[in-house]
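Deviations from the work plan: none for this task. Representative record:
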Amino acid sequence: MRILIVEDEHMVAKALSRMTREIIGPDLRLLETVECVSDADEFLTDHEVDVLMLDLNLGGESGFDLLAGMVARNFQTIIVSANTDQALTAFEYGVVDFVAKPFTEERLKQALGKLGGAGQGNKHTGAGKAQFLGVRHAGKTQLIQVADIVRLKADDKYCEIILKNGSNFFHEKSLGQLMLLLPDNFQRIHKSHGVNLLETQALKSFPGSKYELQCLSGEHVPVGRSYLSALRERVD
Amino acid sequence: MKIKHIIFQFVFIALFFGAMLISYGSVSMPGEEEFPSIVLGDFEVSREDKRVFSAAPFQSGNWVTLSDFDYDTDQPVNWLRAEIDVPVGMLEQPRPLAITIYSTVASVIYINGKQVGSNGVPSQTSAGEQPGRVHRIFPLRVDALHEGKNIISVRFSAHGFGEKWSFLKPELEVVAIIMPLEEKGHVAFEDYLPFLMMTGSIFTAAVFFLMGAFIRRKVDAEIWLAPMFALAWVELLLGILATLYSYPYSYHILWLYLWYVCRIYAGVFLFRFVANRLDITVVRPWAYTWILPALLLITPVVFNDFSIEFGLFLSTVLYTLLAIIAALYAARKKHPYGKLVLLVLLLFSTGFFFEQDIYLSNYYYYYMSALSVVLFVLQAIAFEHKRREAFEISLLSERLELELLKSHLQPHFIMNTLSALAEWIRENPDVGVKMIHALASEFRILREIAGEQSIPLFREIELCNVHLELMSYRKDVKFRLETSVQDGEALVPPAIFHTLIENAMTHTRFKKDVGPFRLEQHQFAEGGLQYELIAPSGEPLKRKVTTGGIGLSYVRARMKDVWGESYLFDDGMSHTGNWTTTIKLETKRQ
């Protein structure tokens, strides 16, 4: 696992590094600490990371402006902040977890655990609280309403997002990563497909145990065999 | 602000003119113009005492004009005579006529050779004279007058001149007016009613400005208005006294002198009010307050030819002029009220250019009365303004106290501190203990000073030191404060340097080997004081600051609360690359 810490409080950064090292152990391939967002941007141009640990209040800088930019990237974000009153908003922006300062090693372990465990196994339902998704479009970050999303389609390591109005966006996160952020009305129904259940109409079966989920828009999305039983539980 | 100012001035001028119009409209002078009258200058005088003068034709006898006449106790009984023109139609009225005499002599009055009355008894000897009253009314017989020219002659003596108030030379005065008897009685009431009203408003003004200062327990410019209006009120009382009570003429010179004293000091107070209101430091105030009035008061005593009525004129003009000069000076110096006061003073003296005699004895009080009304209104506005200001200040100081305490209860401060503390306890418990003590000290000091308006500088330095110690543990960088201070007791608003240090930390990244913060205090010989806070050099953080500025607005609000407008604040990067904040105080306020 590759982790970048953005924290301007020296002792806090020190504690985060120490605990992260202890929690992840030999799987930790990269751990870097920077003090501000511009340094983080610089680092990210040359390095790939899996997790960003971010302080929302970096000495006068507003956290949400940079958060919108960060959550559009291909890594997951964990907020480590003193301002717990911003937690709800942070989740809406699509962060995996919000760790309040001062924190314990157990709490940090729990946050990091979400990344490794979820999205695999039988859990195919959205596990997050995101209300918006930041997408990078023409070099700028744009926020789209999660409620406007009809379905998601995996495209290599990226993900295509199809909206109600027919427009589509590419997100740098994988389908699996996005399912961690999206709320539970999102369901993964195929290795390469996820849908917003609120935007679906009917589950249709075809000869040869083939199933398709019909969307309100009229589109048909294939349902993977191993995803069928979980989907049935949700739609019946 | 500008518009408000203009509207304010407009309202002010409208008020002034309104008050003036009301005064003019309700007052008309006793009918000198409407009724036949003669004044002293119209008379000729003869030093001979011949009874035939009463009936003699106008051309006969040895008469001189009054300007050549000098009253002489060796030749005590003299005659005056003049022609008075009775218009056609006046005699046809059914109402009986009367002659009113204002005089400072003992006299017998004749019209066309017939005696119409005596005011006292003129005599060759002082003991034989019975003094006349200052005004008398004698009813006239139907046949006393005829249409056209009539001769009024007056046999008089004035022994009282040299006796009672011998240090003053009295002024000979004889005025005669012919008017209907009942008209006189009626006019008197109507004439003096406005005077009574003016007396009321001027008296109220005197009490108002005196009590105002008393209640506020503060002596400001308005305190001078109290004696000014009080003296104008005394003048009016003297006038009313003379109208209601016709005292013996020998008292008249004292009456006149009292009037003179009042007028001079009303002028002194007007000048002092204007100067104080416009923040003009009067050079040698004793000269205007004591020497000049003393000179004015002594002049009629030393120089017997100096008329007190001229003195009244002189002193009124002199002090109004001084006040106008003061206002002119303030207006040129761009004092906010300079033009306004100048305008009022000019309006105040406009009447003077129309009719000087009437200005001194009448218009002067209308202006005083109008001024009192205008000042009431202004004062009411000022009180309301001050009340609101005081309320806002109390709100402000509560808000500032809260803001300071809140900044330390903010999660960013407290949670980061606790997170760092947790790590220190793990890593090095000794440092953790020190950090707990630093945090406790900072909270203790903050709690003590947050509610204060200002604190001694050394206390502020103590706060900065303890904060820097805490931040050193938090950032694991050795911060410290060096000071160069002469007067540690100098008062500063609480936590301003502390806030400025915090600000510098937010906007700069300091390296491990950071230099010290420096706080320097410079005292100037002229009494000014300057503070300079120099941050150690570091790497400025290029970041979009959206939550910043709260610290600076706190510092500004605190400084304004204590120092008002008398400070200069400047911050910026110095040529050495250190963020430097300079606070310069014009005068050292303690």
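The first helix of chain A runs from residue 10 to 24.
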